[in-house]
């Protein structure tokens, strides 16, 4: 299948002393009909990449293709792309239908009002066509903005944090709505967010960005389970990290030595390791905790307990002063497995251990 968007060495610097390198030579392919998310902290360059695709910014270097065609020189209105912004700017003096039909009428589309009504039906606001935007809730207004952006049938829809102005419950219900809209229209969605839950729950694939660079592109489960870099592992989910020296045990396993008393059995050293120390990590919920101590296992004193409802988080201070966090299911009556100050053993299966070299 043809890619919707292909970028090669795409670079954007903003003027300044020194210049701001917002995007540092990125390569990326976004597939047709994909729900693709750009995820990263504030300032990592996600909006810049989105604006380059839309044509609101001109790249400093590199190429940008849409459906195989180099569009670097095409003005925004000539691109088969539309954008939904965080702050939906609906026209207050027009009713909802007129808002959705506006762009189509300007393009001289003969059946603009009929298409606009179909789009309102698609976002389940068909009955609200005659209302003014001010007579709608925030979530409804954002759905009108979506209908308006979808109405000209763009091949790609760019969404710049479109849910961030909504409250939590509404945000959660809009996630399912956006996913449905993407499936039903078959339009490629490129969604920008700094919210990992949003990214994990909606996307076919995610690009995690940091400081103008793409760190990893993968499906949500792969990003969570097999982060490519320490940045990705820290930005998404919670994990324990240890600096360790590897010792190979045959071709498919290794032991990672953190200190005299702490070592983890894990997978073989990754091919890109260049010798020396590596970072060993495991997710909090992948480890188990048991009361009391067992010889030769990882153990220490529980220094902190945080009750989280379905789970409890335990912080264990190991004998040599390092600490490890474990998230564990509670007993059926909700009580914790162990108390602060008591001795505990932490177990981690070799399958849960990930080795990071970047
Ligand atoms: N017009 C501009 N002039 C100068 N610097 C800019 C401009 N626009 C963005 N930047 C800088 O480029 C970097 C990337 O900004 P960008 O808006 O792409 O990040 P972002 O990941 O979308 O962040 P946020 O989530 O806060 O919107 C930042 O350091 C920002 O300050």
Any key phrases for this structure?
2 domains, 6-stranded mixed β-sheet, alpha+beta, nucleotide-binding, Spermidine/putrescine import ATP-binding protein PotA, binds adenosine-5'-triphosphate, ATP hydrolysis activity, 8 helices, 23% helix, globular, Rossmann fold, OB fold (Dihydrolipoamide Acetyltransferase, E2P), transport, 358 residues, 36% strand, ABC-type polyamine transporter activity, 5-stranded antiparallel β-sheet
- Main sheet overview: 6 strands, mixed
Total number of distinct structural domains? 2
Mean pLDDT across residues: 92
Q: Could you tell me which ligands this complex binds, including any ions or cofactors?
A: adenosine-5'-triphosphate
Computed CA radius of gyration, to the nearest angstrom: 25 Å
- The low-pLDDT segments are none
Shape: globular
The helix/strand series, from N terminus to C terminus, equals EEEHEEEHHHEHEHEEHHEEEEEEEEEE
**Estimated share of beta-strand residues:** 35-45%
Number of strands: 20
CATH class label of the largest domain: Alpha Beta
Strand order of the largest sheet: 6-7-8-3-9-10
**Overall helicity:** 10-25%
How many DSSP H or I helices?
Answer: 8
What does this structure look like?
The protein is α+β, with helices and mostly antiparallel strands. It has 2 domains: 3-230, 3-Layer(aba) Sandwich (Rossmann fold), CATH 3.40.50; 238-357, Beta Barrel (OB fold (Dihydrolipoamide Acetyltransferase, E2P)). It is built from 8 helices and 20 strands. Strands 6-7-8-3-9-10 form a 6-stranded mixed beta sheet, sandwiched between helices. It has a 5-stranded antiparallel beta sheet with strand order 13-12-11-14-20. Strand 9 and strand 10 form a beta hairpin. Helix 3 (112-122) crosses helix 4 (138-150). The longest helix is centred in the middle third of the chain and has 18 residues, at 168-185. It is globular and about 80 Å long. The two termini are 32 Å apart. The structure holds adenosine-5'-triphosphate (ATP). The site of adenosine-5'-triphosphate has 13 residues, from strand 2 and helix 1. Belongs to the ABC transporter superfamily. Spermidine/putrescine importer (TC 3.A.1.11.1) family. Residues 5-236 form the ABC transporter domain. It is an enzyme of class 7 (translocase). Its EC number is 7.6.2.11.
